[in-house]
Amino acid sequence: MTQSAVSPRPAIAHETLLIVDFGSQVTQLIARRLRELDVYCEIHPYQTLTAETLTEIAPKAVILSGGPDSVTREGSPRAPDALFEMGLPILGICYGQQVMMTQLGGRVVSGEGTAEFGRAYVEPKQDLPLLEGWFAEGREQVWMSHGDHVDTLAPGFEVYGTSPGAPFAITADVARHFYAVQFHPEVHHTPNGARLYENFVRLAGFTGDWTMGAYREEAVARIRDQVGDKKVICALSGGVDSSVAAALIHEAIGDQLTCVFVDHGLLRLNEADEVVGMFRDHMNLSVIHAQEQDLFLGKLEGVSDPETKRKIIGGLFIDVFQKYANEIDGAEFLAQGTLYPDVIESVSFSGGPSVTIKSHHNVGGLPEKMGLKLVEPLRELFKDEVRALGRELGLPEHFIGRHPFPGPGLAIRCPGEITREKLEILRKADAVYIDQIRKHGLYDEIWQAFCAILPVRTVGVMGDGRTYDFACALRAVTSVDGMTADYYPFSHEFLGETATRIINEVRGINRVTYDITSKPPGTIEWE
Ligand code: XMP
């Protein structure tokens, strides 16, 4: 097999839309909007595109993303000239629009009076098929974020929409199917933006051949092809990604897959039984339940530094997984639930590595150490697609919709020293809190909710007696990707009722607080 110059490539050819990335913060959102339309798309950094890679990707249409640079700066990013000669429909967004204008013979200027940031309103100038469903109410709200603006259109382009700060807000060369917009249709603040993408892919002739039903069949065929009659091992965490990966691989190769569920003693109430029960009994998967609570909790004794805790857990996890995996004769492959956002190469302008805020827990490094090859059947999918695939595979809804749970588990929700007593209290408080959230119908509105046990005891009074027990903090956030988050605005009634229930039902807690820190400056987890 020849090595692909571009990655990842789907196993079976789909109509592909190429997104050329110029480094916008929201490029992934463009891909998400397209995937929602059942269109397969790939994001590639502008520097990686050559005549050769373009032939390999074989796009049916192209979108040029936004980006932080200025086309007026010498040496700033450009699309390969060949792209404009391929006879493909092209949509340029913000910086992508300016790249198009510059490369096709127009002019972009920067300087005073050219910037526009935030909400703006676009008025129509002429009818355009790309704008079907737009301007029903006269004007459309859009999100602008640009320092430069187009001053002279490239030959062949005409104006179809304007805003007070952008006389060329929407332009097109209809004959060549080249479209260019100054605003960002992919963001939430352009409420009708999805319609623009829908019109663009319709005009480009996409049939919508990217569905999770089709993906399931292809992925199964591909896994069989890759693995043959060899064995695969998978670290099952109970999270959505590893669960869906395991279910999919099991469908493809049945008993050739063995999962290892590492119980580090830092799981939530009943979690190990639920996960092992579901996969082993309900789905008939071969699951090894590695009961290593004593090992992990023993090594964590007396440790209170967050990074040290993470390193201990990560290191032990790899050792333990390896120990159990070695018992499986002839395993040649390791399955991982890697998703598309982990695979996309990003356009880096600073060049330097970013600061490590927390060392994340994963099984990176294991494949080389154990001489295993990787099976990564979710590499082309976004999180919401993984959930859809999970549904397709018959995983229960309450399982698919579960909030993310970190690899180091309750260790990072127990600031300071970890003791079995604290973990026990934390598990019970967390269970009451989540029960409250479910009872009030709020679970699906929240990205992640959990309880943290604080390393302080405080004085309270219950009945006629004095108490001296732990305090806990409730955390609940909304987020789209965990990178930024807002605290969830519970009602005071909900918070009061939950605090009462926790104090009444959980021995060892006499005070409940609610964490109202957003991210940034806080992080979602406490450590
Ligand atoms: P923070 O606390 O960094 O968390 O704001 C962002 C998201 O990542 C999860 N998280 C982890 N997930 N291994 C994981 O698999 C880890 O080590 C880890 N640390 C944090 C966290 O739960 C949140 O969803």
Describe it.
The protein is α/β, with parallel strands linked by helices and 527 residues long. It folds into three domains: 194 residues, Rossmann fold (3-Layer(aba) Sandwich), CATH 3.40.50.880; 189 residues, HUPs (Rossmann fold), CATH 3.40.50; 96 residues, GMP Synthetase, Chain A, domain 3 (2-Layer Sandwich). Helices cover 31% and strands 24% of the residues. The chain is built from 15 helices and 20 strands. The protein has a nine-stranded mixed sheet with strand order 2-1-3-4-11-10-9-6-7, with helices on both faces. A five-stranded parallel sheet has the order 14-13-12-15-16, with helices on both faces. A hairpin with a 4-residue loop joins strand 10 and strand 11. Helix 6 crosses helix 12 and helix 14 packs across helix 15. The radius of gyration is 26 Å and the shape is globular. The two termini are 45 Å apart. The mean pLDDT is 92. The structure holds xanthosine-5'-monophosphate. Xanthosine-5'-monophosphate binds next to loops.
